[in-house]
Amino acid sequence: MIDLELLRKEPARVEENLGRRRNPEYLRLLSEAREKDAAWRACLLEADGLRRKRNELGRAIAGARTRGDPSETLDAEAKSIPQSMKEVEAREAQLLAARDALLLRIPNLLDDSVPFGKDDSENVVVATWGEAVAGAPGLKPHGEILEALGMAEFDRAHRSSGSGFYYLKGPIVLVDFALQRFALDLLIERGFTPVVPPYMLRRAPYEGVTDLADFENVMYKVEGEDLYLIATSEHPLAALYRGEILDEDRLPIRLAGVSTNFRKEIGGHGVDQKGVFRVHQFQKVEQFVFCRPEQSAAFHEELRTNAEEVFRRLKVPYRVVNVCTGDVGTVAAKKYDIEAWFPRQKAYREVVSCSNCTDYQSRRLGIRMGKAGRTGKVVPHTLNSTAVATSRALAVILEQYQRPDGSVQLPEVLRPYLGGLRELTPVAAS
RNA sequence: GCUGAGGUAGCCUAGCCCGGCAAGGCGCCAGCCUUGAGAGCUGGUGGCGGCAACGCCACGGGAGUUCGAAUCUCCCCCUCAGCGCCA
User: Fold this and answer.
1) Which of A412, A427, A344, A428 is nearest to A175 (CA)?
2) pLDDT tens digits, residue range A29-58?
3) C-alpha dihedral over A156, A341, A330, A162, to 10 degrees?
4) Which domains, ranges and CATH numbers included, belong to chain A?
5) Furthest-apart CA atoms within chain A: distance in Å
6) Do the interacting molecules here have an ipTM over 0.85?
7) Strand B contacting residues by CB (7 Å)
Protein backbone atom coordinates (compact mmCIF):
# COMPACT_ATOMS: atom_id res chain seq x y z
CA MET A 1 0.00 0.00 0.00
CA ILE A 2 1.31 3.43 -0.85
CA ASP A 3 1.71 6.12 1.77
CA LEU A 4 -1.62 7.93 2.21
CA GLU A 5 0.11 10.96 3.66
CA LEU A 6 2.30 11.25 0.58
CA LEU A 7 -0.76 10.88 -1.62
CA ARG A 8 -2.45 13.78 0.18
CA LYS A 9 0.59 16.03 0.21
CA GLU A 10 2.08 15.33 -3.20
CA PRO A 11 -0.61 13.81 -5.39
CA ALA A 12 1.08 15.00 -8.57
CA ARG A 13 4.24 13.10 -7.72
CA VAL A 14 2.34 9.90 -7.01
CA GLU A 15 0.36 10.28 -10.19
CA GLU A 16 3.48 10.85 -12.29
CA ASN A 17 5.12 7.76 -10.80
CA LEU A 18 2.10 5.51 -11.33
CA GLY A 19 1.80 6.83 -14.85
CA ARG A 20 5.14 5.24 -15.69
CA ARG A 21 3.50 1.85 -15.39
CA ARG A 22 1.51 2.73 -18.48
CA ASN A 23 -1.76 1.35 -17.18
CA PRO A 24 -4.54 3.97 -17.15
CA GLU A 25 -6.47 1.78 -14.71
CA TYR A 26 -4.03 2.73 -11.94
CA LEU A 27 -4.59 6.43 -12.47
CA ARG A 28 -8.30 5.88 -12.33
CA LEU A 29 -7.95 3.98 -9.04
CA LEU A 30 -5.76 6.76 -7.73
CA SER A 31 -8.16 9.60 -8.46
CA GLU A 32 -11.05 7.57 -7.13
CA ALA A 33 -9.14 6.86 -3.93
CA ARG A 34 -8.43 10.57 -3.52
CA GLU A 35 -12.10 11.40 -4.00
CA LYS A 36 -13.17 8.82 -1.43
CA ASP A 37 -10.57 10.10 0.99
CA ALA A 38 -11.76 13.68 0.71
CA ALA A 39 -15.39 12.62 1.07
CA TRP A 40 -14.52 10.46 4.04
CA ARG A 41 -12.77 13.33 5.78
CA ALA A 42 -15.75 15.61 5.29
CA CYS A 43 -18.07 12.91 6.54
CA LEU A 44 -15.85 12.25 9.55
CA LEU A 45 -16.09 15.88 10.56
CA GLU A 46 -19.86 15.66 10.42
CA ALA A 47 -19.96 12.42 12.40
CA ASP A 48 -17.55 13.77 15.00
CA GLY A 49 -19.84 16.76 15.53
CA LEU A 50 -22.81 14.50 16.16
CA ARG A 51 -20.84 12.28 18.48
CA ARG A 52 -19.69 15.34 20.37
CA LYS A 53 -23.28 16.44 20.84
CA ARG A 54 -24.31 12.99 21.97
CA ASN A 55 -21.48 12.84 24.51
CA GLU A 56 -22.33 16.27 25.86
CA LEU A 57 -25.98 15.36 26.29
CA GLY A 58 -25.06 12.02 27.82
CA ARG A 59 -22.90 13.77 30.39
CA ALA A 60 -25.68 16.27 31.12
CA ILE A 61 -28.18 13.47 31.66
CA ALA A 62 -25.83 11.56 33.91
CA GLY A 63 -25.12 14.73 35.88
CA ALA A 64 -28.79 15.55 36.27
CA ARG A 65 -29.59 12.07 37.48
CA THR A 66 -26.74 12.10 39.97
CA ARG A 67 -28.21 15.30 41.40
CA GLY A 68 -31.57 13.54 41.61
CA ASP A 69 -33.02 15.97 39.11
CA PRO A 70 -33.75 14.08 35.87
CA SER A 71 -34.79 16.28 32.95
CA GLU A 72 -37.31 15.13 30.37
CA THR A 73 -36.24 17.86 27.98
CA LEU A 74 -32.69 16.53 27.91
CA ASP A 75 -33.89 12.95 27.45
CA ALA A 76 -36.09 13.96 24.55
CA GLU A 77 -33.30 15.87 22.86
CA ALA A 78 -30.90 12.96 23.29
CA LYS A 79 -33.36 10.51 21.77
CA SER A 80 -33.33 12.40 18.49
CA ILE A 81 -29.60 11.91 17.89
CA PRO A 82 -29.18 8.16 17.17
CA GLN A 83 -31.30 8.38 14.04
CA SER A 84 -29.12 10.96 12.29
CA MET A 85 -25.96 9.33 13.60
CA LYS A 86 -26.86 6.02 12.11
CA GLU A 87 -27.01 7.47 8.62
CA VAL A 88 -23.79 9.48 8.89
CA GLU A 89 -21.82 6.70 10.49
CA ALA A 90 -22.90 4.22 7.85
CA ARG A 91 -21.78 6.63 5.14
CA GLU A 92 -18.49 7.23 6.91
CA ALA A 93 -17.73 3.52 7.25
CA GLN A 94 -18.68 2.91 3.65
CA LEU A 95 -16.40 5.68 2.35
CA LEU A 96 -13.47 4.50 4.44
CA ALA A 97 -13.87 0.91 3.28
CA ALA A 98 -14.12 2.04 -0.32
CA ARG A 99 -10.99 4.18 -0.03
CA ASP A 100 -8.97 1.39 1.56
CA ALA A 101 -10.11 -1.17 -0.97
CA LEU A 102 -8.91 1.16 -3.73
CA LEU A 103 -5.60 1.78 -2.01
CA LEU A 104 -4.97 -1.95 -1.76
CA ARG A 105 -5.21 -2.25 -5.54
CA ILE A 106 -2.74 0.53 -6.30
CA PRO A 107 0.77 -0.81 -6.98
CA ASN A 108 3.99 0.32 -5.35
CA LEU A 109 5.75 3.48 -6.49
CA LEU A 110 8.63 2.78 -8.81
CA ASP A 111 12.24 3.65 -8.15
CA ASP A 112 13.64 6.29 -10.51
CA SER A 113 16.24 3.85 -11.84
CA VAL A 114 13.62 1.48 -13.25
CA PRO A 115 13.87 1.61 -17.05
CA PHE A 116 10.77 2.58 -18.98
CA GLY A 117 9.36 -0.22 -21.12
CA LYS A 118 6.27 -2.21 -22.06
CA ASP A 119 7.24 -5.82 -21.23
CA ASP A 120 10.16 -8.17 -20.59
CA SER A 121 11.61 -7.48 -24.05
CA GLU A 122 12.53 -4.02 -22.79
CA ASN A 123 14.35 -5.07 -19.63
CA VAL A 124 17.85 -3.63 -19.51
CA VAL A 125 20.93 -5.84 -19.15
CA VAL A 126 23.10 -4.41 -16.39
CA ALA A 127 25.72 -7.17 -15.99
CA THR A 128 26.88 -10.42 -17.53
CA TRP A 129 29.13 -13.14 -16.14
CA GLY A 130 30.70 -16.10 -17.91
CA GLU A 131 30.59 -16.93 -21.57
CA ALA A 132 27.32 -17.58 -23.33
CA VAL A 133 28.48 -20.41 -25.58
CA ALA A 134 25.95 -22.23 -27.75
CA GLY A 135 25.77 -25.93 -26.92
CA ALA A 136 26.67 -28.78 -29.28
CA PRO A 137 23.85 -29.80 -31.63
CA GLY A 138 23.17 -33.10 -29.84
CA LEU A 139 22.30 -31.60 -26.45
CA LYS A 140 19.04 -32.89 -25.02
CA PRO A 141 16.36 -30.98 -23.15
CA HIS A 142 16.78 -31.38 -19.40
CA GLY A 143 13.53 -33.29 -19.05
CA GLU A 144 14.59 -35.87 -21.63
CA ILE A 145 17.95 -36.27 -19.95
CA LEU A 146 16.28 -36.86 -16.61
CA GLU A 147 14.03 -39.53 -18.09
CA ALA A 148 16.93 -41.15 -19.92
CA LEU A 149 18.86 -41.25 -16.65
CA GLY A 150 15.85 -42.87 -14.99
CA MET A 151 15.64 -40.03 -12.47
CA ALA A 152 12.26 -38.50 -13.23
CA GLU A 153 8.72 -39.64 -13.89
CA PHE A 154 6.77 -37.08 -15.82
CA ASP A 155 4.04 -39.11 -17.53
CA ARG A 156 3.13 -40.94 -14.34
CA ALA A 157 3.10 -37.67 -12.38
CA HIS A 158 0.81 -36.11 -14.96
CA ARG A 159 -1.58 -39.01 -14.51
CA SER A 160 -1.50 -38.90 -10.72
CA SER A 161 -1.49 -35.14 -10.20
CA GLY A 162 -1.81 -33.42 -13.56
CA SER A 163 0.62 -31.64 -15.85
CA GLY A 164 3.11 -29.44 -14.10
CA PHE A 165 3.94 -32.12 -11.55
CA TYR A 166 6.84 -34.56 -11.47
CA TYR A 167 8.50 -37.29 -9.51
CA LEU A 168 12.24 -36.97 -9.00
CA LYS A 169 13.98 -40.27 -8.24
CA GLY A 170 17.43 -41.45 -7.29
CA PRO A 171 20.62 -39.36 -7.22
CA ILE A 172 18.97 -36.23 -8.68
CA VAL A 173 17.15 -35.91 -5.36
CA LEU A 174 20.53 -35.60 -3.64
CA VAL A 175 21.51 -32.87 -6.09
CA ASP A 176 18.27 -31.03 -5.30
CA PHE A 177 19.04 -31.14 -1.58
CA ALA A 178 22.71 -30.29 -2.21
CA LEU A 179 21.72 -27.13 -4.06
CA GLN A 180 19.52 -26.02 -1.18
CA ARG A 181 22.14 -26.75 1.44
CA PHE A 182 24.88 -25.06 -0.59
CA ALA A 183 22.81 -21.89 -0.96
CA LEU A 184 21.73 -21.98 2.66
CA ASP A 185 25.32 -22.29 3.91
CA LEU A 186 26.35 -19.37 1.76
CA LEU A 187 23.61 -17.21 3.25
CA ILE A 188 24.30 -18.31 6.82
CA GLU A 189 27.92 -17.32 6.29
CA ARG A 190 26.63 -13.89 5.26
CA GLY A 191 24.55 -13.32 8.36
CA PHE A 192 21.18 -14.81 7.40
CA THR A 193 19.07 -16.81 9.84
CA PRO A 194 17.66 -19.97 8.25
CA VAL A 195 13.89 -20.29 8.57
CA VAL A 196 11.43 -23.02 7.67
CA PRO A 197 8.12 -21.13 7.53
CA PRO A 198 4.52 -22.33 7.41
CA TYR A 199 3.64 -23.59 3.93
CA MET A 200 0.11 -22.20 4.26
CA LEU A 201 -1.12 -18.74 5.21
CA ARG A 202 -4.47 -17.27 6.10
CA ARG A 203 -6.05 -14.82 3.72
CA ALA A 204 -5.60 -11.69 5.87
CA PRO A 205 -1.80 -11.87 6.18
CA TYR A 206 -1.56 -13.02 2.60
CA GLU A 207 -3.25 -9.84 1.38
CA GLY A 208 -0.42 -7.96 3.01
CA VAL A 209 2.30 -9.53 0.95
CA THR A 210 1.01 -9.94 -2.55
CA ASP A 211 -1.03 -8.66 -5.44
CA LEU A 212 -4.74 -9.33 -4.90
CA ALA A 213 -4.98 -10.78 -8.40
CA ASP A 214 -2.66 -13.59 -7.31
CA PHE A 215 -5.42 -15.12 -5.24
CA GLU A 216 -7.24 -16.22 -8.35
CA ASN A 217 -4.33 -16.75 -10.71
CA VAL A 218 -1.44 -18.07 -8.71
CA MET A 219 -2.47 -19.43 -5.35
CA TYR A 220 -3.86 -22.80 -4.38
CA LYS A 221 -6.63 -22.54 -1.81
CA VAL A 222 -7.30 -25.27 0.69
CA GLU A 223 -10.91 -26.30 0.44
CA GLY A 224 -13.05 -25.55 3.47
CA GLU A 225 -10.23 -23.71 5.27
CA ASP A 226 -9.04 -20.13 5.36
CA LEU A 227 -5.63 -21.25 4.08
CA TYR A 228 -3.57 -20.78 0.95
CA LEU A 229 -0.49 -22.75 -0.08
CA ILE A 230 2.47 -20.39 -0.24
CA ALA A 231 3.81 -19.39 -3.65
CA THR A 232 7.19 -18.56 -2.13
CA SER A 233 8.63 -18.41 1.39
CA GLU A 234 8.88 -14.65 0.86
CA HIS A 235 5.21 -14.50 1.83
CA PRO A 236 5.29 -16.17 5.25
CA LEU A 237 8.60 -14.42 6.01
CA ALA A 238 7.08 -11.01 5.28
CA ALA A 239 4.05 -11.91 7.41
CA LEU A 240 6.25 -13.07 10.31
CA TYR A 241 6.09 -9.71 12.11
CA ARG A 242 2.63 -8.62 11.00
CA GLY A 243 1.15 -5.94 13.25
CA GLU A 244 4.39 -5.57 15.21
CA ILE A 245 6.79 -2.76 15.93
CA LEU A 246 10.34 -3.81 15.09
CA ASP A 247 13.04 -2.60 17.42
CA GLU A 248 15.12 -0.38 15.15
CA ASP A 249 18.30 -1.30 17.02
CA ARG A 250 17.79 -4.89 15.88
CA LEU A 251 17.51 -4.07 12.22
CA PRO A 252 18.43 -5.23 9.68
CA ILE A 253 16.86 -8.67 9.96
CA ARG A 254 18.22 -11.12 7.38
CA LEU A 255 16.22 -14.31 6.89
CA ALA A 256 16.88 -17.31 4.66
CA GLY A 257 13.60 -19.08 3.94
CA VAL A 258 13.57 -22.71 2.89
CA SER A 259 10.36 -24.11 1.51
CA THR A 260 8.44 -25.89 -1.13
CA ASN A 261 6.44 -23.41 -3.23
CA PHE A 262 3.12 -23.96 -4.93
CA ARG A 263 1.91 -22.09 -7.99
CA LYS A 264 -1.25 -22.65 -9.93
CA GLU A 265 -0.43 -20.56 -12.98
CA ILE A 266 2.93 -21.42 -14.39
CA GLY A 267 3.03 -19.50 -17.64
CA GLY A 268 3.14 -20.48 -21.27
CA HIS A 269 4.31 -23.77 -22.64
CA GLY A 270 7.32 -23.95 -24.83
CA VAL A 271 10.29 -26.06 -25.76
CA ASP A 272 10.62 -27.61 -22.35
CA GLN A 273 7.11 -28.58 -21.54
CA LYS A 274 8.36 -31.86 -20.18
CA GLY A 275 10.67 -31.01 -17.33
CA VAL A 276 10.97 -28.98 -14.19
CA PHE A 277 11.39 -25.46 -15.57
CA ARG A 278 7.72 -24.53 -15.22
CA VAL A 279 6.05 -26.55 -12.49
CA HIS A 280 3.33 -26.26 -9.89
CA GLN A 281 5.65 -27.19 -7.04
CA PHE A 282 9.34 -26.55 -6.41
CA GLN A 283 11.94 -26.02 -3.69
CA LYS A 284 13.54 -22.69 -3.09
CA VAL A 285 15.98 -20.99 -0.75
CA GLU A 286 14.94 -17.38 -0.44
CA GLN A 287 16.64 -14.27 0.94
CA PHE A 288 14.48 -11.84 2.89
CA VAL A 289 15.40 -8.57 4.63
CA PHE A 290 13.67 -6.07 6.90
CA CYS A 291 15.67 -2.83 7.09
CA ARG A 292 15.55 0.92 7.63
CA PRO A 293 14.15 2.84 4.66
CA GLU A 294 17.44 4.54 3.84
CA GLN A 295 19.24 1.18 3.64
CA SER A 296 17.04 -0.67 1.22
CA ALA A 297 18.83 0.37 -1.98
CA ALA A 298 22.11 -0.97 -0.59
CA PHE A 299 20.46 -4.20 0.56
CA HIS A 300 18.96 -4.66 -2.88
CA GLU A 301 22.50 -4.76 -4.26
CA GLU A 302 23.58 -7.09 -1.45
CA LEU A 303 20.84 -9.61 -2.23
CA ARG A 304 21.68 -9.46 -5.91
CA THR A 305 25.38 -10.05 -5.14
CA ASN A 306 24.51 -13.10 -3.04
CA ALA A 307 22.31 -14.55 -5.77
CA GLU A 308 24.99 -13.93 -8.40
CA GLU A 309 27.50 -15.66 -6.15
CA VAL A 310 25.38 -18.83 -6.16
CA PHE A 311 25.55 -19.07 -9.94
CA ARG A 312 29.22 -18.07 -10.14
CA ARG A 313 30.12 -20.87 -7.78
CA LEU A 314 28.00 -23.26 -9.82
CA LYS A 315 29.94 -21.97 -12.86
CA VAL A 316 26.76 -21.18 -14.75
CA PRO A 317 27.00 -18.10 -17.03
CA TYR A 318 24.28 -15.53 -16.48
CA ARG A 319 23.25 -11.96 -17.00
CA VAL A 320 21.41 -9.53 -14.74
CA VAL A 321 18.57 -7.40 -16.04
CA ASN A 322 16.96 -4.33 -14.53
CA VAL A 323 13.29 -5.17 -15.00
CA CYS A 324 11.40 -2.42 -16.82
CA THR A 325 8.30 -0.52 -15.71
CA GLY A 326 5.89 -2.70 -17.69
CA ASP A 327 7.24 -5.96 -16.24
CA VAL A 328 8.18 -5.08 -12.67
CA GLY A 329 5.03 -6.27 -10.89
CA THR A 330 2.72 -4.76 -8.33
CA VAL A 331 4.69 -5.05 -5.13
CA ALA A 332 8.26 -4.17 -6.14
CA ALA A 333 9.66 -0.65 -6.49
CA LYS A 334 12.60 -2.12 -8.38
CA LYS A 335 13.50 -5.61 -9.51
CA TYR A 336 16.52 -7.41 -10.90
CA ASP A 337 16.19 -10.75 -12.61
CA ILE A 338 19.13 -13.05 -13.01
CA GLU A 339 18.90 -15.04 -16.22
CA ALA A 340 21.07 -18.12 -16.59
CA TRP A 341 22.50 -19.20 -19.94
CA PHE A 342 20.86 -22.33 -21.31
CA PRO A 343 23.34 -23.57 -23.96
CA ARG A 344 20.90 -25.94 -25.70
CA GLN A 345 18.15 -23.36 -25.98
CA LYS A 346 20.79 -20.73 -26.74
CA ALA A 347 18.91 -18.35 -24.48
CA TYR A 348 19.05 -16.62 -21.15
CA ARG A 349 16.19 -17.66 -18.91
CA GLU A 350 15.04 -16.42 -15.52
CA VAL A 351 16.41 -18.22 -12.49
CA VAL A 352 16.36 -15.47 -9.85
CA SER A 353 14.06 -12.58 -9.05
CA CYS A 354 15.39 -9.94 -6.68
CA SER A 355 13.02 -7.20 -5.48
CA ASN A 356 13.08 -4.10 -3.32
CA CYS A 357 9.50 -3.76 -2.04
CA THR A 358 10.28 -0.57 -0.06
CA ASP A 359 7.48 0.15 2.46
CA TYR A 360 4.69 -1.40 0.37
CA GLN A 361 4.46 -4.79 2.11
CA SER A 362 5.26 -3.41 5.58
CA ARG A 363 2.48 -0.86 5.38
CA ARG A 364 -0.06 -3.46 4.24
CA LEU A 365 1.09 -5.76 7.03
CA GLY A 366 0.99 -3.06 9.70
CA ILE A 367 4.69 -3.40 10.47
CA ARG A 368 6.42 -0.33 11.91
CA MET A 369 9.78 0.31 13.46
CA GLY A 370 10.81 2.24 16.55
CA LYS A 371 13.02 2.29 19.61
CA ALA A 372 12.18 -0.23 22.33
CA GLY A 373 9.29 0.96 24.48
CA ARG A 374 8.10 3.54 21.99
CA THR A 375 5.61 3.62 19.21
CA GLY A 376 7.08 4.01 15.78
CA LYS A 377 5.60 5.75 12.82
CA VAL A 378 8.43 4.87 10.47
CA VAL A 379 7.68 1.95 8.21
CA PRO A 380 10.59 -0.41 7.52
CA HIS A 381 11.44 -1.65 4.05
CA THR A 382 11.35 -5.26 2.88
CA LEU A 383 13.39 -6.97 0.19
CA ASN A 384 13.42 -10.45 -1.20
CA SER A 385 15.47 -12.46 -3.64
CA THR A 386 15.82 -16.01 -4.77
CA ALA A 387 19.07 -17.61 -3.65
CA VAL A 388 18.30 -20.76 -5.55
CA ALA A 389 15.15 -22.32 -6.92
CA THR A 390 16.23 -25.90 -7.42
CA SER A 391 13.89 -26.63 -10.32
CA ARG A 392 15.44 -23.90 -12.46
CA ALA A 393 18.97 -24.56 -11.20
CA LEU A 394 18.66 -28.27 -11.97
CA ALA A 395 17.38 -27.47 -15.44
CA VAL A 396 20.34 -25.26 -16.28
CA ILE A 397 22.88 -27.62 -14.71
CA LEU A 398 21.48 -30.52 -16.75
CA GLU A 399 22.09 -28.53 -19.91
CA GLN A 400 25.33 -26.87 -18.94
CA TYR A 401 27.02 -29.98 -17.55
CA GLN A 402 25.63 -32.51 -20.01
CA ARG A 403 28.16 -34.81 -21.78
CA PRO A 404 27.77 -36.28 -25.28
CA ASP A 405 27.19 -39.79 -23.85
CA GLY A 406 24.15 -38.60 -21.89
CA SER A 407 25.81 -38.54 -18.49
CA VAL A 408 25.96 -35.34 -16.47
CA GLN A 409 28.90 -34.01 -14.55
CA LEU A 410 28.04 -32.28 -11.28
CA PRO A 411 29.26 -28.83 -10.16
CA GLU A 412 32.34 -29.07 -7.99
CA VAL A 413 30.94 -26.73 -5.39
CA LEU A 414 28.19 -29.25 -4.56
CA ARG A 415 30.62 -32.07 -3.78
CA PRO A 416 30.67 -31.53 0.00
CA TYR A 417 26.94 -32.17 -0.04
CA LEU A 418 26.86 -35.18 -2.33
CA GLY A 419 28.62 -37.91 -0.39
CA GLY A 420 31.06 -38.79 -3.15
CA LEU A 421 28.62 -38.49 -6.04
CA ARG A 422 30.39 -36.68 -8.91
CA GLU A 423 28.22 -37.37 -11.91
CA LEU A 424 24.84 -38.64 -12.94
CA THR A 425 24.75 -41.86 -14.96
CA PRO A 426 21.73 -43.94 -15.96
CA VAL A 427 20.11 -45.94 -13.17
CA ALA A 428 18.19 -49.17 -13.76
CA ALA A 429 14.63 -48.60 -14.96
CA SER A 430 11.80 -49.59 -12.62
C1' G B 1 -12.82 -32.34 17.40
C1' C B 2 -14.46 -31.55 22.85
C1' U B 3 -14.10 -28.63 27.37
C1' G B 4 -12.35 -24.47 29.83
C1' A B 5 -9.82 -19.70 30.26
C1' G B 6 -8.77 -15.49 27.72
C1' G B 7 -8.16 -11.01 23.76
C1' U B 8 -7.91 -3.55 27.24
C1' A B 9 -2.61 1.61 24.54
C1' G B 10 4.75 -0.32 22.75
C1' C B 11 4.35 -4.43 26.92
C1' C B 12 1.77 -6.24 31.51
C1' U B 13 -2.54 -5.72 34.15
C1' A B 14 -7.54 -3.60 36.82
C1' G B 15 -12.45 -2.41 35.68
C1' C B 16 -17.13 -6.39 33.46
C1' C B 17 -21.29 -9.57 38.08
C1' C B 18 -24.31 -4.16 39.20
C1' G B 19 -24.01 0.51 31.91
C1' G B 20 -22.39 7.00 33.08
C1' C B 21 -15.35 10.95 30.95
C1' A B 22 -10.72 3.54 30.71
C1' A B 23 -7.42 3.09 36.57
C1' G B 24 -2.51 1.34 37.68
C1' G B 25 2.41 -0.65 36.66
C1' C B 26 6.58 -1.46 33.21
C1' G B 27 9.07 0.65 29.26
C1' C B 28 10.13 5.14 26.76
C1' C B 29 10.77 10.86 26.57
C1' A B 30 11.75 15.50 29.19
C1' G B 31 13.01 18.24 33.58
C1' C B 32 15.02 18.33 38.65
C1' C B 33 18.79 16.01 41.54
C1' U B 34 23.80 13.65 40.74
C1' U B 35 31.19 14.13 39.19
C1' G B 36 28.82 10.45 35.85
C1' A B 37 25.57 6.36 35.39
C1' G B 38 21.76 4.53 38.25
C1' A B 39 18.21 5.42 41.95
C1' G B 40 14.71 9.01 43.50
C1' C B 41 11.19 13.05 42.50
C1' U B 42 7.95 15.81 38.88
C1' G B 43 5.61 16.03 34.25
C1' G B 44 4.63 13.64 29.66
C1' U B 45 3.33 9.23 26.54
C1' G B 46 -1.56 5.83 21.13
C1' G B 47 -4.63 6.68 16.44
C1' C B 48 -7.73 9.81 13.21
C1' G B 49 -9.60 14.56 11.54
C1' G B 50 -8.71 19.85 11.87
C1' C B 51 -4.57 25.88 9.78
C1' A B 52 -5.82 26.11 14.75
C1' A B 53 -8.71 26.23 19.13
C1' C B 54 -10.18 21.67 19.70
C1' G B 55 -12.88 17.39 18.79
C1' C B 56 -13.53 12.40 17.87
C1' C B 57 -11.87 7.53 18.21
C1' A B 58 -9.23 3.41 20.61
C1' C B 59 -11.13 -2.44 25.46
C1' G B 60 -10.47 -8.97 19.16
C1' G B 61 -14.49 -8.05 14.91
C1' G B 62 -19.66 -7.29 13.71
C1' A B 63 -24.82 -6.63 14.92
C1' G B 64 -28.46 -5.41 18.71
C1' U B 65 -30.62 -3.07 23.35
C1' U B 66 -29.95 2.13 25.35
C1' C B 67 -29.99 9.14 25.72
C1' G B 68 -25.29 6.51 26.85
C1' A B 69 -21.82 -0.10 26.15
C1' A B 70 -15.05 -2.39 27.87
C1' U B 71 -19.53 -3.58 30.95
C1' C B 72 -25.95 -6.33 28.93
C1' U B 73 -27.78 -9.72 24.46
C1' C B 74 -26.67 -12.37 19.82
C1' C B 75 -23.26 -13.93 15.86
C1' C B 76 -18.22 -14.46 14.30
C1' C B 77 -12.70 -14.46 14.62
C1' C B 78 -8.26 -15.41 17.12
C1' U B 79 -4.91 -17.13 21.21
C1' C B 80 -3.73 -20.21 25.30
C1' A B 81 -4.50 -24.61 28.57
C1' G B 82 -6.38 -29.55 29.31
C1' C B 83 -8.39 -33.78 26.83
C1' G B 84 -8.95 -36.56 22.13
C1' C B 85 -6.68 -37.82 17.40
C1' C B 86 -2.00 -37.98 14.90
C1' A B 87 3.87 -38.42 11.78
Assistant:
1) A412
2) 999 999 888 888 888 888 878 777 787 777
3) -10
4) 4-105 (1.10.287.40), 120-424 (3.30.930.10)
5) 103
6) no
7) A 4, 41, 44-45, 47-49, 51-52, 54-59, 61-62, 65, 75, 78-79, 81-82, 93, 202, 226, 245, 371-375, 377
